[in-house]
Amino acid sequence: MDLRESDGAVWAVGLMSGTSMDGIDAALLRTDGHQVFEVGPALTVAYDEATRARIRALLGTPPGRSVAEVADLARDLTERHAEVAARLIGQSGVTPAVIGFHGQTLLHRPEARLTVQIGDGALLARRLGVAVVNDLRQ
Predict the structure, then answer these.
(1) pTM here?
(2) CA atoms of 111 and 46, how far apart (whole Å)
(3) What is the C-alpha separation between 113 and 138, in angstroms, rounded?
(4) I need a labelling partner for 101 at 20 to 30 A (CA). Which of 22, 47, 49, 107 fits?
């Protein structure tokens, strides 16, 4: 099913959880990929302190941390993003064509062209039944 409107625009959900580790921001907008035609509702859901502590422990991927810890956090954060996006979609009644998923930054050294964001775009797409664009900095 083509979700494009007559002007070529689609509804998209943007998801962001930044280095502040304060929580997940979700927003709906109608765009053709070049121009924003309409800004829809937005939602912010705070992380609890335990989640912030888990993220903080993995910032910069310090020595002694296992790949399993990073994978577990990535899965858990993806599930939380799915919950927030589903809530926004449900409250708005809008069916998005795509979701932009930044993920959670653990390491960002632009001068070295090195960045690590975690989050599972395929899992998010399965949970929501919507195409997901992710791994945006790579």
Answers:
(1) 0.89
(2) 30
(3) 10
(4) 49
Number of domains in the chain: 1
pLDDT of residue 130: 97
The rounded mean pLDDT for the chain is 90
Q: What is the pLDDT of residue 1?
A: 44
Q: Name the more confident of 3 and 55.
A: 55
Rama region for 105: left / alpha / beta (φ>0; ψ in -120 to 50; rest): beta
Note whether residue 68 is domain-resident. Answer: yes
Task: Give CA separation, 77 vs 15, 31, 56, 71, 95, in Å.
Answer: 12, 26, 13, 10, 22
Length of the chain: 138
- Angle between helix 121-128 and helix 67-92 axes, rounded to 10 deg: 30
For residue 117, the enclosing domain spans 10-134
Q: For position 23, which CATH number holds?
A: 3.30.420.40
- Could you read off the pLDDT of 56-80 as tens digits, one per residue? 988 876 666 788 999 999 999 999 9
Count CA atoms within 13 Å of residue 9 on its CB side. Answer: 14
